[in-house]
Queue: 4 jobs
Job 1
Amino acid sequence: MAYFEPTSGERRGVVVLGVALLLGFAILLFVQLSAPQASGDAEKPGEAGTSLRSKRSSQLYYACPERKVETFDFDPNEADSTTLFRLGFAPFQVRGIYRYRSMGGRYHEPADVQRIPGMTNELWERLAGHIRIHRRYQYVTPPPRSRDRLVRSDSPVEAVSRANRDTLRFPEKLRPGQTVSLNEADTTALKKIPGVGSYYAARIVRYREALGGYASAEQLLEIEGIPDDIGQWVSVDTAHLRRIDVNHATKSQLVRHPYLRVYRAGDIWQWRHNYGPLRSADDLRRLPNFTDDDVQRLLPYLLFR
């Protein structure tokens, strides 16, 4: 048994190890006993349940810097994503603007920007006066025709010519019971409507071209600022409306119509891709971005073939 008896060095090692363990245990016990007292001094009554970790995490979640919004002139047809973000547009709005432009859509006048999904009154009122549409994106307004352009200044009919110019500058207005054909009248005829001058006459013609013709006089009220009683001064002939073949039109052709734009045109395109041709207005009502009012407005302009 002497073979297994520890040497003097081994005994000293065991003693040193035991002392070290006791010392470590004493230090740990001292730390645990002193910790509650320190935390009690740091915490106020009623806040014992709030730990330092929870306070720190709340700071991480809520102490986020706000995005700086700027206001300056811009063209929505050419502004890049960085510019749009600086102006205060949300990420989903920027994606929608890019998607609309990639499909051939263009903003022809400042009022078109109001149709951007998610547009708020605060954002519109701040940016409305800073929208600058480049001339190449604007609709063409035909110059007014002058009946006395070729009359010489020394002509004996100079007085008559001057009277004609005054008549053109201040056209005679329609009388009660008189109307103009909404789908055939040019700007000169439209300016005879009470309350309509050169500006609104040009807008009526531009909107007629975008729609493919007016299906009803009520559509004029979709033009901002148009007189409310304009319907009594016009007649509507729907025989020559320009219609869209929903099953064969390209995506860019669908997008250009004011009642379709990007999202509804995308719905039609996706339905055709997944299920084939649309057969009636009932198929349109199944699409996510179409309401019954949308379908009723569109029906005069659609062909299902």
Job 2
Amino acid sequence: MVQPDLFQQINNAVLDLQSSDLQSYVRPVKTLARLLQDPALDMINQQLTAGLDLDAFLAESVKSEGGMVGSVRLAWPDDRDKGLGLEWLLIRKFADDPDFMINFGHTYYYGGSKVMAGIHNITRQMIIPFARDYKGYVMAHGNTQPKLVMPMSNKVFIVHGHDGEARETVARYLHGLGFEPVILHEQANQGRTVIEKIEANRDVGFAVVLLTPDDVGRSVKEDELKPRARQNVLLELGYFICHLGRERVCALRRGNVDIPSDFAGVVWESMDDGGGWRLALARELRAAGHEVDLNKAF
């Protein structure tokens, strides 16, 4: 059964893509593609994409290119359902190869010299109508069942190292947005180990991980020591990615901190002195499904 709240998550991903920049657009694209490939949609997706050849569609579209920039046109079929299937395939390809999305936008949705103009044009002209029509297609061809959506927890766990200033700044900001910050060392021990205290807070709805230069380290093959986050912070980062999902974890990097190679594919935000991280964090919370008043984000 397809749950109606899946469409809300799809809509949230589209909204996040709409407000993204060059550093952050990959995450909502991948989230959107993952949601569109939910197991509950398998039969619908197979029906929608049956017999479609994306490579042939792109090859036919290239033939329309003229001598002027922006003259090339996509060879959409007259059948709207087939066009919907091709759009589904394109979104999956965007997620698999984000650079392809940049080139695709420049070629077919040209908006000037700025890279993000093409991506925003794709979102506005193709992905937003697709999300609307895809929901209609699923509702008409599949089975849906109402689902009781439990209220989301407003507790946000703050994973931190030795930078007390960064910890308190983030905690105050979250509190101002209406969230309840959870800081580990403020929790009663009750004879528990650290990991048991973390597990006791399984009702949190989001986690903010502060990557601050508290330690130094290097590989045995290297000579230079590099600033890095404390190992307990990386352990807790992995725990919350597993427990909550990547879309409910936001990492804030402060200063020059070596990013672990296994984390390179996950979006992190720079905790800059200008305060730009505040809006970025608010957007991540909203994309995760929380109600956030962006007027309070500054």
Job 3
Amino acid sequence: MKAMILAAGKGTRVRPITYTIPKPMIPILQKPVMEFLVELLRQHGFDQIMVNVSHLANEIENYFRDGQRFGVQIAYSFEGRIDEGQLIGEALGSAGGMKRIQDFNPFFDDTFVVLCGDALIDLDLTAAVKWHRSKGAIATVIMKSVPREEVSSYGVVVTDENGKIKAFQEKPKVEEALSTNINTGIYIFEPEVLDYIPSGVEYDIGSQLFPHLVEIGAPFYGLAMDFQWVDIGKVPDYWRAIRGVLLGEIKNVSIPGHQVAPGIYTGINVAVNWDKVDVKGPVYIGGMTRIEDGAKIVGPTYIGPNCCICSGATVDNSVIFEYSRLGQGARLVDKLVFGRYCIDKTGERIDLEAAALDWLITDSRKSLPSQPPTEQRVIAELLSNETL
């Protein structure tokens, strides 16, 4: 069976992570989110997978290759051009990406599934496809019910008593929402749906294709299912996803490494004297990371590989990407550290270099002076009593 993963977007709402990592490659405790999707597809018999790529396409292609090591076949449709030797991404939109593949050579010749590449799901795809076919649908949107007070954060789907889609509401006010079922970005299509997508232009599934199907009265349905759906479309979503994994709230995602104490997991060769640090789980510490004596780590916290947490530093309820160094006396609470950026759980970020704080939180591979300048030592003393 055939499927498609949408992976061409720039991931602007997940910046700065997506400056260097395409959204489908964002790691959930060392494993790209798209890998979980590939595994799910394989489990349900979808072994031929097309992936449209554009932004940082090489990162995706070099990791997944032809899919052989994941037990599937994968091919890629690049959306963009080469300009002066550089790949320039020019995404065609979710529907335009499907049409480009079909125009190149008809690939979709039977019922197929399309997944957005930025969510963790445990959906029973087999049951969903069976329902779709039983309705004689040309397209089906997999929906999920959310509490009414949350509808304004999502695209709402309105159906009749038979499940046929009547309308969509994009992030409606709570009092104006006509349904509590939301669009999860999981779709089931018949090849005929591609006849409604123009060739060679940017065209979107949600905002263009779907309203057209409603307008012409196509057999277009919504199926509400009970499954776990963890979206990482924005930085706060990603932060919550990591917390959820560490707290055991997300199914089918295990904490890697080995458990050295209750709730404390590590990769290999972590340099730490457990008798001289204060660690409260759940915590994951990546391989080749150094935790100096006197450091304090409070979970749920993820510390990537090759990091250094210096003496007297505190990491509380935070996510730290690989090769990060947290200096002496620094206090990191409810933060995400990625390269030169420190981001809070609302998505607000500090450019550490621009703020002249890169001596306090920086790349662990840098050579640093044994003592920062006098004025920076004063800042460090202030930060030791405050939260960065």
Job 4
Amino acid sequence: MPQIITKSAKAKKLAEDNQPRLAHVSLWTYEHDQVARTMHRHHNQCEVLLTVEGHGLHMVGGETLHTKRGDVLVYNTGVVHEDAAQADSMEHIYCCGVENLRITGLPENCLLPRGASALLHTGSRFDEFEAMFRMIYVHATEPRPHSEEIIAHLLPALLLMITQLGYEEQMGEQPESAQVNLMREYIDTHYAEDISLEHVATQAGISPYYASHLFKEFSGYSPMQYVMRRRIGEAQSLLLTTKLPIADIAGQIGFDSPNHFSTIFSKHTGYAPSIYRKQFLQTTQ
């Protein structure tokens, strides 16, 4: 499941400064409850995904979404998310990371308005969307003359197609509990600190027992499970995007012992941190 970092994302721009740029593109395969990336978020890019086969389980901003062939997911910048396959299933999914995305009326690197569902359905247009994702992937992973220019034209078209889906579909799911929002936002900001269930519950003005019950009802995880998954998700990002020593990463995400970090990381991902970094980091030169 290598992630391809495009040359243009590192140096040369694909188009003018006001045009979106492809930061990375991947074709992922998740198998039978496998979690490829635990809870994490991107501060400088938006991600768009297309399921081409199988069924997935994705947590986006605290909401659990079940995906199938033809479904599109949009992760606005800063939105915490996690990706996995459903039990007894396998999911093949394209993922494009987008930088420098500016849409009138929306924050930078946001493709959908706040409150809109991250899950969209291509329906009868699946072949059209699959072809766009596939062409971008092929030109990024097997570059030929003019591949960068082709990507520079394909990417804005794909993003406009996705915004069309957003306008066409019914929006406005039932609002999530305001108390859960308060707790989750606190965790997303302070997950690397020494926080407890009592700290989290205080943010919503409720008892620790009720906080744990309410949070799990909406997210599928207890508050402290969410804390740990956020730490591991951030560790995955740091392993893939920096050369920081593993001990430094452990300290940055709230572990006081590198050995404890390695044990927890292995439990969640199936890999020791050093093996994970070697296994999944692949960049073009």
